[in-house]
Amino acid sequence: MNKEIWFESWFDTNFYHELYKNRDEDEANIFIENLINKLELDPCSEVLDLACGKGRHALKMSNYFQKVTGIDLSKNSINIAKKFNKENLKFLTGDMRNFSLNKKFDFIFNLFTSFGYFENFNDNSLVLDNCNKHLKKNGLIVIDYLNPEKVINNLVKNEIKIVNKTKYTISRKIENNFIIKDIYINQKNKEKHFYEKVQLINLKMFSEILKKSNFTINKTFGNYNLEEYNENSNRLIITALKNN
Fold first, then answer.
1. What is the rounded CA–CA span in Å between residue 157 and residue 113?
2. How many CB atoms lie within 10 A of CB 240?
3. Beta-carbon contacts of residue 176 (< 8 Å; ≥ 6 apart)
4. What domains can be seen in the chain, in order of their start residue?
5. pTM confidence score
6. Most buried residue among 28, 30, 40, 140 by CB atoms closer than 10 A?
């Protein structure tokens, strides 16, 4: 597998969906509700869920916002998401670096560490430039990311998971400012190998790249209850305004 484009193959496998299928739905729903209430987001807004996966968060958003669009690179994920048949909700396949829609949004959400996948750090600016292009005047982007300090200080180097009789042997390491996860999958005595590689982007780095793409950070939070961020927080959640 080409490690530079690991996400293109891994996110489209059934193994990926099986391994992460038990992500806490209640936690995700509470997080979105908290964002809507804390930021006092207008229900008449049009929003984009960027890197929407199977659409679970976009579906939740569609219960509140007037129009919701979800975009993801994975065709398999989008096919699953399209089963949510709602008039104000649609899903598209696209690369966050270069998708092009003939519309602008009030808010863009990038949730659950759906950023920093690229080998070239400058690709992050392509993503943010594209977000800026797709936001209306005074538009807001919300980025929910891992907290690098917490990851570094609490790294689980090895673990084994059994999901539906399939064994996942997972190892993690930090190298060149990336968190690297090797995933070996044993199913019916056949082994497959996949790989995740995510940049460790701290608040200072985010501030710099957001500024470069004409955004200004206005709020930071440290968890899904939207409590104050610090280096021991579980998450690094950033809201940034488009500079007009």
1. 19
2. 26
3. none
4. 3-146+201-242 (3.40.50.150), 151-196 (no CATH)
5. 0.89
6. 140
